[in-house]
Amino acid sequence: MSTCNLKEIPYESESQNGRVRNLLPEEQPREKLMQYGPDVLTDAELLAILLRSGSKGMNVLETSRALMKQTSGIHKLARCDWDEMRSIKGIGSVKAVTLVAAFELARRVNAHDGSEEVVFRNPEQAYSYFGPMLRDLNKEVFVLVSMNSAKRMLRYHRISTGGTNATIVDVPEIMRLAIMDRARSILLLHNHPSGNTEPSRSDISLTRQIVKSAAIMGLHVCDHVIVAGKKYTSFQARGLLR
Q1: Would you list the domain boundaries of the chain?
Q2: What span, in angstroms and rounded, lies between the C-alpha atoms of 60 and 109?
Q3: What does the H/E/C string look like for the chain?
Q4: Which CATH architecture has domain 20-109?
Q5: Which of 3.40.140.10, 3.40.50.300, 3.40.50.12650, 3.40.630.30 would CATH assign to domain 115-234?
Q6: Count of CB atoms within 10 A of residue 238's CB?
Q7: pLDDT recorded at residue 20
Q8: pLDDT digits (tens, 9 = 90+) for 50-84
Q9: Would 20-109 and 115-234 be classified into the same CATH topology?
């Protein structure tokens, strides 16, 4: 990922086009939000509020616009993890933590409808809940969902995080966590950052190992869902759990 050649300076520092504090109140991101509400702000303006300070030669609003341009937009920026984020010049550790936390909160809010019980009776429900968490990530993440006999979620675990094309999953660890959760059934999910919905040979092999181990432990594997952007693949629907 390309980086911005920026160095951090205070929010109200000088810029080529003037200071943020010298802009009209309705043009300043914070004041604009308070006066008109968040929905009228652009992505760059919302980002500027999170960044709080600008960079050498630019105020915070110009910095956020430059960052958006360097990362090709807010969706690409949201896919950066903490290490990638802080490697962008002008961001640093504190800004990186703030942005990663904000994007993760957005994914969680988007995933959960606020109801106390979360039930997964079909792959559509699984994707609706976990899709927002997994679809924008640029590394593969494997998730185990422990459920009761009515397929209500008891707990979920991020088992592993890998590279852009694969992740290493420890099958005994999956069984241990499911048993600790007192699960009766489990749901498996992982993402494909490439956007390819097709299961790989290793995906199929791993799933079969988990199904075998689960059967020995008296657990039922309901499905394995691959999240690939705004699309998904269900192993159950394709008969790959047999």
Answers
A1: 20-109, 115-234
A2: 27
A3: CCCCCCCECCCCCCCCCCCHHHCCHHHCHHHHHHHHCHHHCCHHHHHHHHHCCCECCECHHHHHHHHHHHCCCHHHHHCCCHHHHHCCCCCHHHHHHHHHHHHHHHHHHHHCCCCCCCECCCHHHHHHHHHHHHCCCCCCEEEEEEECCCCEEEEEEEEEECCCCCCCCCHHHHHHHHHHCCCCEEEEEEECCCCCCCCCHHHHHHHHHHHHHHHHCCCEEEEEEEEECCEEEECCCCCCCC
A4: Orthogonal Bundle (1.10)
A5: 3.40.140.10
A6: 12
A7: 56
A8: 988 887 777 888 888 888 888 888 888 887 888 88
A9: no
Structure tokens that stand for 152 in this block: 């209500």
| CB distance 160 to 142 below 8 Å | yes
The CA distance from 181 to 217, in Å, is 13
- Encoding tokens for residue 40? 């009228």
- At 189, give phi and psi (nearest 5°): -145, 145
pTM of the model: 0.61
How many whole angstroms separate alpha carbon 77 and alpha carbon 74?
Answer: 5
Other Cβ atoms closer than 10 A to 198: 11
pLDDT of res. 163: 60
Backbone phi and psi for residue 168, each to the nearest 5 degrees, phi listed first: -95, 125
Q: Which amino acid is at 59?
A: N
All residue ranges of the chain with pLDDT < 50 are 1-18
